[in-house]
Amino acid sequence: MAKPRKTRGESLVLRYAVLGTWALICLLPILWFLSIGFRPRTEVITPEPIYFPTFSLDAWHLLVSDWPIAQYLRNSIIAVAGSVVIDLILAIPAAYALSRYEFKGREDIGFYILSTRMMAPAIVAVPIFFLFKTVGLLDSVWALMLIYAAINLSLVTWIIRSYMLDIPKELEDAARTDGASDLRILWEIIIPACLPGIITAAVIAAIFAINEFLFTLLIASTANAYTMSVALANFTGGSDGIIYNAIALVSFIAFVPILILVILIQKHLSRGLTMGAVKG
Fold first, then answer.
1. Nearest alpha-carbon partner for 110 in 63, 164, 73, 68
2. Alpha-carbon distance 33 to 50, whole Å?
3. Residue 73: closest CA among 279, 276, 256
4. Per-residue pLDDT tens for 99-153?
5. What are the residues whose beta carbons fall under 8 Å from the beta carbon of 236, sequence distance 6 or more?
6. Separation CA 222–CA 232 (nearest Å)
7. Which of 81, 28, 79, 37 is closest to 59 using CA atoms?
């Protein structure tokens, strides 16, 4: 006896049920982290489990009254966004040259660019500190912007280069036949063709910049240039001890912009992550 086939409606219900369950599993740690930010500190540090926590705005009042969270968030956005723009302006022409022009030592130069990302940050921490101090950029958002861009430039260049290598050269040859210059080819053909890869590289650079702690702590000596990553250290010591609910709330606020950005560009991001894959 043949088994009854599932209808289209039953298949959709099953699919949405599986996806909904998976989405809930992924969101539970985020929601739990957010719930810690809206609980009293006494309930967070108590050794006894609390199954029905109390809603409290103590951490939010602490951030608003004693902590300039808006300034730190603004510093983070300016430094990260500016560094990504600098990386793209420099990395796209460099990636185009490394992927299209034939010259002696091209592969060696490409590997050297990537190898700079493998260098231990502590090696150049002291020289960078004195460099920014000499030019008068110490303790400023502009210094953070430049150092973030310098840290991620090699990685962004290498990622975009891998996508440009997949673009057929016949497109450029046809454009050159029509009299197009290299700059016009780059702007009108190469960049639109590898736009998902560029977006992927930009998002990865933004994530690395947000998570950067060592150079931010070294350059931002006062609250004027603090970003969210360094400012979180204010809640991990002192006479009040570790303020877990404030840490959770600030971490959630720092996490939300990247989450929204990834959701908005997920179509281009998913395409860019597979665009440079090796074809079998």
1. 164
2. 15
3. 256
4. 888 777 777 777 777 777 777 778 888 888 888 889 888 888 999 999 999 999 9
5. 242, 247
6. 13
7. 37
Rounded-to-integer distance, Cα 49 and Cα 38, Å: 16
Give the amino acid at 273.
L
105 to each of 63, 116, 154, 173, how far by Cα in Å? 53, 17, 17, 24
In 3D space, the residue among 109, 87, 115 whose CA is nearest the CA of residue 97 turns out to be 109
Contact between 230 and 217 under an 8 Å Cβ cutoff? The reply is yes
Alpha-carbon span 256 to 227, nearest angstrom? 15
Within a 10 A sphere around the Cβ of 217, how many other Cβ atoms?
A: 15
Q: Which residue has the tokens 């920014």?
A: 132
Token pair 């290299």 is found at 182
Task: List C-alpha distances in Å: 220 to 133, 136, 225, 240, 258.
Answer: 11, 13, 5, 23, 22
Dist. CA 248–CA 254, nearest whole Å: 10
Q: Given pLDDT bands bounded at 50, 70 and 90, which one contains residue 279? A: very low
User: How far is residue 166 CA from its own chain's centroid?
Assistant: 24
Three-state DSSP class for residue 67: coil
Query: CA 16 from chain center: how many Å?
Result: 30
CA-CA distance, 224 to 134, in Å (whole number)? 19
